[in-house]
Amino acid sequence: MPIKKAAMKALRQAKKRAVRNQNVKEGIAFLRRSVRKAMESKDVKNLQALAKAEIKAIDKAVQKKVLKKNTGSRIKSRLAKKLNALAKAVK
C-alpha cells in the first residue's frame, strides 16, 4: 500500500482507469463475437453494420491508448480478410 499522498492518488486513478479500459475491451470483444455470429449466419445487412461498429470501437480504443496501434491494426486486418472471403463466397 502506498504511503505518500501522491502515490495513493495515483493508485486510485490507476484502478479507475483499469476498470474503464476493461469495459472498453469487453465491448470490443462483444462486437467481435457478434460479427462472428453474423458471419456464420451469413446475415449480410447486419454484418456490415456490426463490422463498421467494431472498426469504430477499435479505432477509438487505439486513439485512447487502451489498445496498442498494431493490435488494433491486426484485428481490423483479420476482420477485413474474413469479410472479403465471405463476399467472394456469396457472389
Question: What report would you give on this structure?
Answer:
This protein has 91 residues and is mostly helical. It has a single domain, classed as Methane Monooxygenase Hydroxylase, Chain G, domain 1 (Up-down Bundle). 87% of the residues lie in helices and 0% in strands. The protein is built from three helices and no strands. Helix 1 packs antiparallel against helix 2. The N and C termini lie far apart (61 Å). 13% of the residues are buried. The mean pLDDT is 94.
Spatial separation of the terminal alpha carbons: 61 Å
Q: Can you identify the CATH superfamily?
A: Ribosomal protein S20
Would you tell me the overall average pLDDT?
94
Q: How many structural units, i.e. domains?
A: 1
The tally of beta strands, per DSSP, is: 0
The radius of gyration computed from the alpha-carbon positions, rounded to a whole number of angstroms, is 18 Å
Output the CATH topology: Methane Monooxygenase Hydroxylase, Chain G, domain 1
Q: What share of the residues does DSSP label as strand, in percent?
A: under 5%
Q: Describe the biggest sheet?
A: none
What series of H and E elements makes up the topology?
HHH
Q: How much helical structure, as a percent, in the residues?
A: over 70%
